[in-house]
């Protein structure tokens, strides 16, 4: 039997989940995450490629469409201390070179500070941000103009061709989405203080709870299960109008699925959690 060399996991993230320290909400979603985490542990990757968005924290003034981080820290958030990621710099450099050769004008970033878009999936799916070496691959999902879904799929395929050359077990993660509309991203401001960000989020939280779109979420998850790229493209390019500004983050799911070889991703769990203002889902490769 051929050893499985690549595993794809896509999962929603939400700061609200970490603030819910008593685990009052989202029990179904947490159970699905636990299932995914067990599958990751069984797969035991040699390293991780993590496609994540940015909430205008790392990239405020210069916003790369696609980037590869060669060194990175995690911002202190949600009761978690600042940390440094274990990035295999040689592999990350080779990935960047490969993407340039594939006609992607990739940005590389060093000593960048990443937020929960990267930290949370590593904690949720690996148990610890440094459980495995990880290559963070930021995709612009927050500050227009955004890459088209077709371009994101092509980008993911290019990453996949690089992984084909690696003699390693690789976990590919896409994180963000599904439907949600965070007040801080609805505000079209590129450089606000953390204090102002907290105020905007608090003032808009009640309205944001009602902006989850389960029908859109289920349509997107259904298209993933068939790896229907035409439907995924249509849903992603119209995400803001149909599912809120935060739904742009499903671009990371497209990139991860494409990097995994375009195999269908089956839904482990879907739960709209109003208290976390997000349609929460987990999907894994077969």
From TrEMBL:
Gene3D superfamilies: LigB-like. Residues 9-279 form the Extradiol ring-cleavage dioxygenase class III enzyme subunit B domain. InterPro entries: Xdiol_dOase_suB. This is 3-carboxyethylcatechol 2,3-dioxygenase. It comes from Gordonia hydrophobica.
């Amino acid at each position: 039997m051929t050893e499985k060399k690549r595993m794809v996991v896509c999962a929603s993230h939400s700061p609200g989940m970490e603030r819910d320290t008593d685990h009052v909400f989202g029990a179904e979603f947490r159970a699905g995450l636990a299932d995914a985490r067990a599958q990751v542990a069984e797969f035991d990757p040699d390293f991780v490629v993590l496609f994540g968005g940015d909430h205008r924290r790392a990239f405020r003034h210069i916003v790369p469409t696609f980037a590869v981080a060669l060194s990175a820290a995690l911002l202190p958030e949600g009761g978690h201390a600042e940390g440094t990621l274990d990035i295999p710099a040689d592999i990350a450099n080779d990935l960047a070179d490969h993407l340039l050769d594939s006609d992607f004008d990739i940005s590389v970033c060093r000593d960048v500070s990443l937020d929960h878009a990267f930290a949370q999936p590593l904690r949720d799916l690996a148990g610890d941000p440094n459980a495995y070496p990880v290559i963070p691959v930021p995709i612009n999902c927050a500050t227009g103009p955004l890459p088209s879904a077709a371009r994101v799929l092509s980008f993911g395929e290019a990453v996949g061709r690089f992984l084909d050359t690696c003699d390693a077990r690789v976990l590919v993660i896409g994180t963000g989405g599904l439907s949600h509309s965070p007040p801080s991203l609805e505000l079209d401001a590129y450089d606000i203080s953390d204090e102002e960000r907290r105020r905007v989020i608090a003032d808009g939280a009640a309205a944001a709870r009602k902006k989850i779109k389960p029908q859109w979420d289920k349509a997107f998850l259904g298209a993933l299960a068939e790896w229907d790229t035409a439907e995924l493209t249509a849903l992603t390019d119209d995400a803001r109008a149909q599912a809120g500004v935060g739904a742009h983050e499903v671009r990371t799911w497209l990139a991860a699925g494409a990097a995994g070889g375009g195999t269908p991703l089956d839904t482990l769990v879907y739960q709209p959690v109003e208290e976390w203002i997000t349609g929460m889902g987990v999907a894994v490769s077969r």
